[in-house]
Design brief:
By secondary structure, the protein is of the alpha+beta class. It has seven helices and four strands, in the order H-H-H-H-H-H-E-E-H-E-E. The protein has a two-stranded antiparallel sheet with strand order 1-2. Strands 3-4 form a two-stranded antiparallel sheet. 62% of the residues lie in helices and 14% in strands.
Length: 158
């Protein structure tokens, strides 16, 4: 048996084992991720910085092609327990937002203002932040995209 045919046989055997043992494959992947989490996240951040434009272009195209899927995901979000209560709180806080006309409490900006609810969540326990400061508060990176915002958590995983 030649070395090429041996390699091919080993690859096929490995594929078959992964197919027959999906739970073990998943457990190993989870263990490896936990062990190497910081390295993996750093590689993702580095890749994102090197490929930012092509990634954003790909994401725009994907969103255009998958509008129905995005709509279904949003519908599932609003049916989750607790979301309806949060939406009631948001509607009550709109009153404050529309009548007080204040600026971001972090940077003083007056564009694209958002509510940041503080714990415990209630309609009168919040601060006003611009979109960038609000995403920073939640530990997310923001990239300006055609007057909308593309939110990227962990510096590149969308």
């Amino acid at each position: 048996m030649t070395s090429e045919s041996k390699k091919k046989q080993d690859r096929e055997s490995s594929r078959q084992w992964r197919k027959d043992n999906p739970d073990k494959v998943k457990a190993y992947a989870e263990m490896r991720y936990k062990r190497d989490r910081e390295k993996i996240l750093e590689k993702r951040r580095q890749w994102y910085q090197e490929n930012k434009e092509s990634f954003l272009e790909y994401k725009r195209e994907w969103l255009k092609k998958n509008r129905e899927k995005v709509r279904q995901q949003k519908n599932r979000y609003y049916r989750r327990p607790g979301v309806a209560e949060m939406e009631k709180i948001r509607s009550k806080t709109r009153f404050y937002f529309n009548h007080l006309k204040i600026a971001c409490e972090n940077c003083g900006g007056k564009e694209k203002l958002r509510f940041h609810h503080l714990e415990p969540i209630s309609y009168d326990n919040f601060i006003i932040l611009c979109n960038k400061c609000h995403l920073d508060e939640h530990g997310k990176e923001v990239v300006d995209k055609d007057d909308d915002f593309c939110v990227l958590s962990d510096g590149g995983s969308a």
